[in-house]
Specification:
Length: 58
């Protein structure tokens, strides 16, 4: 992964830069867009919304 790709990785829930953190990356269940979530948002089950299709999940 290039440095540019790491910089662009932000938590879909809270928006923090997650480069170098233990975070989850997964595809949106509806459209397949790559989403990222930080450890804190996953642990707290914070909602996320896909920026492409608007799908919302826990």
């Amino acid at each position: 992964m290039s440095a540019e790709q790491r910089v662009k990785r932000k938590c879909t829930s809270c928006g923090i830069n997650i480069a170098g953190m233990s975070a989850a990356s997964f595809s949106c269940p509806d459209c397949g867009q790559q989403l990222h979530r930080c450890k804190r948002c996953r642990k707290q089950s914070n909602l996320y919304e896909c920026p492409d299709c608007g799908f919302t999940g826990p």
